[in-house]
Amino acid sequence: MPELPEVEMTRRSFAQRIAGARVHGLSMGKPLRWPLGVDPAQLTGLRVGLVQRRAKYLLMPLHEASAQGDMQTDVAGWLLWHLGMSGSLGFGAGLGEAGVHDHADLRTSQGVLRLHDPRRFGAVVWVSSLDSALAQRLLGHLGPEPWDAQGQPLDAKRFHQALQKHRSSIKQVLLAGEAVVGVGNIYASEALFLAGIRPTTPAARIGPVRALRLRDAICEVLRKAIEAGGSTLRDFRDAHGNAGGYQQQMWVYDRDGQGCTRCGGVIQRIVQGQRSSYFCVGCQRP
DNA sequence: CATTCCGCCTGTAAGC
DNA sequence: TGCTTACAGGCGGAAT
Description:
Blueprint: H1 4-18, E1 23-28, E2 47-48, E3 52-54, E4 57-63, E5 75-82, E6 88-92, E7 102-108, E8 111-116, E9 123-127, H2 133-139, H3 156-164, H4 170-176, H5 185-195, H6 208-227, E10 267-272, E11 275-280
Helix pairs in contact: 1-6, 3-6, 5-6
The chain binds a DNA duplex (16 and 16 nucleotides) through helix 4 and helix 5.
């Protein structure tokens, strides 16, 4: 489910409501992808800061309870939340009993943040600092964001140079998260359609002009998906419980056998690296 | 070194 | 109906 738009939607749906809350406790359910890495009792009493996003991770700073002032200098550590394939977060005061697929409950003075994740590919990990070895192992290798904190898009020349370094197909390079992060299986197909590039095209064969178009297509697709509240294929919900609406405007993803909205040709499905790719032969050039 | 494949889990839908 | 198989939004590590 969750690619950059869904993770960002999730963040926006609860970051303000949980900011400043006091941690009352953290309850973990069945094992997730990685262990929490701390005795949950250690977190009780800390204050929740402003939740940020890096790639598909949500970064939640927890501040020392005693500190009154500068939120920058009193960080006790961070909870890193990842939604994996099937995860979603709910936040509220009356969530009720945890169900069989609820595997983390962060109880706070302002409500409970709950990770619901049937497949348990998601994770909640505590790191004492973003520079710690564990944090670096999870975050250190990540490529650049599609746009920075000021909204400036990834430098097109840098993006082009990153693509030149790979011999594999552009679809797989996008998924690898080295040239750019946040693009998953849905939005890779969508962005390549918008850019007019076939998913099988070797990344290194993409010249500067097409790299620029692709950079712009990625930003456009992700931004529009955020505006639409993300995509809900099966069960994605933000922390308000709202479904996304982007799947209604998808060009090619999950549309194999149907007509291309632009040229009327038949959308094809192929498999690359055991993942489905969708494209239009007429609209996308090798 | 880069690339491909596998496995982690559970749920759902399609095929026989 | 029941059983088996394929596939699903991610990602790290082993194998090649």
